[in-house]
Structures
1.
Amino acid sequence: MKCSEFLQELTNYLDGVLDERTKSELEDHLAWCHNCYVVCDTTKKTIEIYRDSQLYELPEDLRTRLRSAIVSKCHQHKKTGPRSV
Amino acid sequence: MGTIQPRVGEPVSDELVLVQAAKRGDVAAFEELVRRYDRNVFRIAQHITQNREDAEDVVQDAFLKAFQNLEQFQGQSKFYTWLVRIAVNEALMKLRRRRPERTVSLDEEVKTEDDSLPREVADWSPNPEQQYSQAELRDILTRTIQGLPPGFRTVFVLRDVEGLSTEETAEALDLSIPAVKSRLLRARLQLRERLSRFFQRRESGDGNK
């Protein structure tokens, strides 16, 4: 497997959806190609860091405010019918 | 090297019951659906619009639109996927309004082929995120992801942050599965490349920028 082929399969590998044969070819490649190993490892860390980052958490007070606005609009929609909201 | 495990979603077993009740006009049932997904919709909206007020509007508009159009939800997909599709469309509309000079679509900015090829291959510190305070890290991550084109950013957020499957992401964004996969790969590689500046191993002394 060449580095460019490894790169094509990287997403499937990280998502665990490769067939056994391709997976084992890819892991052979990783065993000797340090650059691809680093790319694979740091891409995995990139995903994990974003997944665990808690960016843009919805603050509880804003959450309550938004929910009550939504609920009140839904009630209004029920009362006045589909075309009036 | 292990694979990435998807974020475990909320239990959906009783979800259809809630949706059915909401279809009959039960606002309390719909409110429970709002409780389940408001955080996700807010995060997705803020990632796309990059603007807090717009994200707040998107949360309200998306849920209201979902309530108004529940009849059209046939239950072939998950309610969440259907809701995300509405939310993404609302968020893109906001983004277009803010940037009328540019056409914003999920199809744009995908022509540059070489921007995802790894150039920076220095290894990272074992726990790169611990080099920074919470606030610094949040700032680095926010600025880095904001630098991605909307089409890449959105695919990455749905797949890797919110844990939708490739198929669900394709459905929510009205893209083909190969398009989702290709964008996801490039988004991941571009983020990795940009984060390398901040996270690479430092003790060698010559790896720093």
Note: Chain A has two domains: 1-53, 57-85.
2.
Amino acid sequence: MIKVIQPGLQTTVQDLGRIGHYEVGMPPSGAMDTYALKVSNLLVGNDEDAAGLEITYMGPKLKFEADTLIAITGGEIPPKINDEPAGMWETLSVKAGDVLSFDFVKSGARAYLAVQGGIDVPEIMGSRSTYTLIGIGGLEGRALKEDDELKIASDKNVNVKAGRKIDEDLIPKYSKEHDIRVVMGLCSYRLTEESKDEFLSTEWQVTPDANRVGYRFKGAKMDFVEREQPFGAGSDPSNVTDQGYPIGSIQIPGGIEPIALLNDAVTGGGYVTVATIISTDLDRMAQVKSGEKVKFVAVDIEESLKARKEMKDKLDEIRKQLA
Amino acid sequence: MTRYEYGGDEFIFVELSEEMTLQANFKAKAITEELRKRDLTGIVDICPGNASYMIRFMPEDIHPDELIELLKQLEEEVSWKEMTIQSRIVDVPIFFDDPWTHEVLMRFRDNHQDPESTDLDYAARINGYDSKEELIKAMTDAPYLVSMIGFVPGLPWCYQMVPQDRQIEVPKYVRPRTFTPERAFGFGGAFAVIYPVEGAGGYQLFGTAAAPIFENEQKNKDFKDEITFPRQGDIFRYRSITREEYDEIREKVEAGQFEYLIKDFSYKPQDVLEDPDAFSEDVIRRLYK
């Protein structure tokens, strides 16, 4: 059992998401940085899709009621055990009565805490991930609050010891300027050629409107190819006949402020989408903060598959190192 | 011309038509159902849309270009006009011009095209109706096809089964609202929707549905198996109700004793396309007989 002394800014239970229900409008939720969650689970001997805590900007204060192993990965929100600095990206031992707290965020935006056995909350539609908009998953469908108690699943008997680490070069570094790779397409035919170029050359600033639902950016005005609006679409040039939005797609309502749709986003609607963030770089988006700069870099489908393969190889390497 | 587009490395988006048509909707349904039947490894989600559809897949199992080739082949092969659609006709009671959406739409007047009017009066005027009562009559006379599900869990996009010259069309709010009440009945573009839960929204607000379309607690009969009610391909008949009936239905819902009036029904796309008016009459007769 873990007792929540302070909840932090936005701390939620997340696994790898509620997959396969997009058709009824159910977004995946789940850890925004899947690489970090997987590695934290592997470090404590869990299956990589076990539920952990996603910690945003400001960490919680947690008291452990039993001896266990934990690992903290992702954005650098420096952890402390009983006020003593503790390492990230390594297996840590905690004793009953120990208190885990965090310093201010140094780089990145989200850290992940895995506990041996995984956080034990009911599975809803195949996942323990929190989706606050409709209040399902996680702990009562909401972020943690003071005095909550988290149960730990105890069906783990993997023999893992504290002190395990992964190689330094497998630990991502997060700066304040981010290159995020996208595949152009969807309804990008609606943008003028000049605006397509400008979309890729602009240094977009992340607005305060940046959370698990999506990130909104400021930086340039996009223009659309003139047309008579098709029947059913609506009258604004940025309107299309309502359609599905891929996870990671970027829409531009009114041509003004692009929005990247992330884990808890709407699954469809009537605004034009022009590009999709590739799956590996969704992990990087999770580590972007309000006020930072993002450049969208166009890649073709083969490059996106290559990036995907590299990510898979990295995780295989980590599994090997920890075996 | 159909557009086949990558949505990153895990999605293919296929736009069959830029404008909304029943033909495009039925075609998307036929292609996605055929793909579902093939039961291919690596297909994660199959999402039929209004005039488009979207597939989520794992590229380790199926290369995106291979999937596009297959989808193009399906587009050529499916005989969507002759397919049989297994559907449900559902009576959906709506309290139009209700106090709750009225309060919200007045609060967000500055976000609207016509701050001096109300959403119903504005929509009646731009669609050539003399009064909001006439608009409500037109919206409830003919049934709607549930042409897509999404936005948030269970939200049905509904497209009225009338010839295009009688379709009601309204713009979305100039700037979206930050609040929409739960079960609000809205209209945007050529689509009617019910908002399952409260949240942001940009559709014109006309009323409130008495019964839920999303129920987390799963206490009413229609939610025992799924927390969402609408299914793509359903036929909804929106029926205008009084405050009195609204309150009666709410009591039943709260007590866990509400049940939608549903009739199972199968039809072919050509039945609708050849004579939408006769089709609508038939649907309504079957629902209430």
Note: Chain B touches chain A through 61 residues (CB under 8 Å).
